[in-house]
Amino acid sequence: MKQVPIGVSARHIHLSVEHIEQLFGKGYELQVMKELSQPGQFAAAETVAVIGPKGKFDKVRILGPARGKTQLEVSRTDAFTLGLNPPVRESGHIEGTPGCTLEGPAGKIELTQGVIVAARHIHFHTEDAAKWGIADKQMLTVKVEGERSLVFEQVVARVSDQYALDMHIDTDEANAAGVKTGDTAIILA
Length: 189
Known about the structure:
By secondary structure, the protein is an alpha/beta fold. Helix content is 15%, strand content 46%. The longest helix has 8 residues, at 17-24.
């Protein structure tokens, strides 16, 4: 049986170095609050306000380290609250997506793009992927068992020697399946 741990991903933002400096001040570096499941990734102590056409979230957690492009990841429910209609996309694929306003202690930014609903995916270390015969970008079918058993289709396999085994779903998906971080899922195909 191919079991994988589940990580539930709440709304969060990845910032470029340029945007970190615009929001927090020149030369500012994010402070590590907590290490995440993926090696080298962390939840920063800092948050920003995110403002859409219809609503606002005051304290959206920043995930570090800094990225090449700023990207806000929200659930579909979050998107409704903000008044946005972002597409489901893999991380980093932000072309043609809506933007929003970001506010930090040192400034404000009007993003023209960068808001996505993250595609559900599983991070595989290359050794795990090889052991199970899974290729990068392969689409998988994954079952979550329990009181609200659910089968997720179109789960993207992301394979790298920099990853640790972990399935990432957003809060809407986790609530629908009645699961939390640390629960497990089974890869069916």
